[in-house]
Amino acid sequence: MTNPKILLISYYFPPYNKVGGRRWAKHFKYLNIMGIETHVLSKNFPGLSSSWDKDILEYNKTITRIDISEPKVPYFKKKLPSTILEKMRWKLSFWKSKIIHAQPITSNNISENTAPLFFEAAVPIILKESINTVILSIGPYKYSEVLILLKVKFPFIKFVLDDRDYWNEEFEKLNSTQLLAEKEFQKNVMNSVDLILTPYQEMKVKYETSFNKRVYCLPHCVDTDDIQNSSSSAKTDTIKIIYGGAFYSNIEDNIILIKEIVSLLSGRGKKVNVNFFVSVKGYEKELEHPLIKRFDFIDTSEYFSKVQEADYVILILPPNRVNAMSSKFFELVALRKPILYFGGVGDVSEYLIKYRLGYHITSENLTTSVDEILSNITTQNIPDKNYDVSLHTFKYQTKLLVDTLNQL
Question: Given pLDDT bands bounded at 50, 70 and 90, which one contains residue 251?
Answer without folding.
Answer: very high
